[in-house]
Amino acid sequence: MNIVVCVKYVPDAQAERTFNASDNTTDRENVDGLLSELDEYAVEEALKIIEAGEGEVTVLTVGPDAAADAIKKALQMGADKGVHVSDDAIHGSDAVATSLVLAEAVKKIGDVDLVVTGMASTDGTMGVVPAMLAERLGLPAVTFASELSVDGGVATIRRDGDASTQTITATLPALVSVTDQINEPRYPSFKGIMAAKKKPVETWSLADLGVDAAQVGLDAAWTKVESFAARPPRTQGEIVPDEGDGGAKLAAFLTERKFV
């Protein structure tokens, strides 16, 4: 069983995130970055599948040089090897271009039985790349899995919705996106951290994948940030003393602002 897990290097959600003033793209240089939390669930699920049988887990990411840290974290968790697609022309790519680069990288890795992704990234939170990637690869996509099992060449997921729960199967090879309800990602052990230093990581450019630079980047993007503004500072709230009519004052306050 050969599994590819697609992960993303994202700005730390606890940091003060902003955009580059020059082109309105996400600032990934002046803020601490890390492996997207939602992708840790994908890494963990792939490791569980391999540990229950045999095979290897390859971690794939697309991003700047610093994105190597996302691969490092996944290798420390237990993944076997990593692939980092890095090229200056990728800067500003949207979900369409990202899915293209990922698809060509998966094809180059070759002989893949299962592609696993998180349900979305914690920076873009679009959640569309898994389906786009599956379409480009010609694979069945079973998404938003809160439970996953692989047996006899078939992947079976449980998808929990607001009103019902679905059980969906797909014949391998397939792509599965997982939610944050599927498992509890492990913390890298000291042994895992040390072992990760010896695990292979390949770095590929667009040329290595046969992707034309004109197909990616900000100029080719279907979606762009037109403008942005800093979040206004919080203002002091209004204190309403209760002199027997506090309830009426609260109702009037909410009604005035059309909250009720």
UniProtKB/TrEMBL annotation:
Among CDD domains, the record links this protein to: ETF_beta
Q: Does the keyword Repeat apply?
A: no
Q: Which cofactor does it need?
A: FAD
Q: Show the InterPro entries listed in the entry.
A: ETF_a/b_N, ETF_b, ETF_beta_N, Rossmann-like_a/b/a_fold
| Domain (Electron transfer flavoprotein alpha/beta-subunit N-terminal) ranges | 23-213
Q: What's its job?
A: The electron transfer flavoprotein serves as a specific electron acceptor for other dehydrogenases. It transfers the electrons to the main respiratory chain via ETF-ubiquinone oxidoreductase (ETF dehydrogenase).
**Listed name of the protein:** Electron transfer flavoprotein subunit beta
Protein species of origin: Terrabacter tumescens
